[in-house]
Amino acid sequence: MVDIALTVNGKAVSGEVEGRTLLSTFLREDLRLTGTHIGCDTSQCGACVVHVDGKAVKSCTMFAAEADGAEVSTIEGQANADGSLNVIQAAFQEHHGLQCGFCTPGMVMSAAALLKENPKPSEAEVREYLEGNICRCTGYHNIVKAIMAASGQDVSSH
């Protein structure tokens, strides 16, 4: 067993994990942050994307022990301080960027990482960035539209 201490969504947390415990498992089972979804366990779907020290990471490919000392942000930490939806979440809602919602946490987390890196991406750049996220419902058009809107760009022609 390994003792770990990290900051998750701005709160200090600690725990004891087996060396093989995945970050996704620690977040979901130990911390009860179930917004981080597990869809494939093989790094294919992107439903488990979180931010570790500001970088988008598929949490099913990282051991919890590797996050010792890190700052981790999950979908639960994305809302505004007053609990309202942040600009990306609101854009997903407004532009119908979700259907069943299973992929949505990973999509929102990936979108946040993209917009931090590239505040005004082109549609092609958004589509390329989302290659590691699978959605089986939407056809991606409204997800891309939502991310473009969240970046402050006009989406009326999309």
From TrEMBL:
Origin organism lineage: Bacteria, Pseudomonadati, Pseudomonadota, Alphaproteobacteria, Rhodobacterales
Pfam families, per database record: Fer2, Fer2_2
Matches recorded under InterPro entries: 2Fe-2S-bd, 2Fe-2S-bd_dom_sf, 2Fe-2S_ferredoxin-like_sf, 2Fe-2S_ferredoxin-type, Beta-grasp_dom_sf, Diverse_Oxidoreductases
PANTHER family (UniProt xref): OXIDOREDUCTASE WITH IRON-SULFUR SUBUNIT (PTHR44379:SF5)
Keyword Chloroplast in annotation: no
Domain of life of the source: Bacteria
Keyword Disulfide bond tagged: no
One annotated GO molecular function: metal ion binding
Residue ranges annotated for the 2Fe-2S ferredoxin-type domain, each copy included: 2-78
UniProt xrefs under SUPFAM superfamilies: 2Fe-2S ferredoxin-like, CO dehydrogenase ISP C-domain like
The protein's name: Carbon-monoxide dehydrogenase small subunit
Source organism: Litoreibacter janthinus
Keywords per UniProt: 2Fe-2S, Iron, Iron-sulfur, Metal-binding, Oxidoreductase
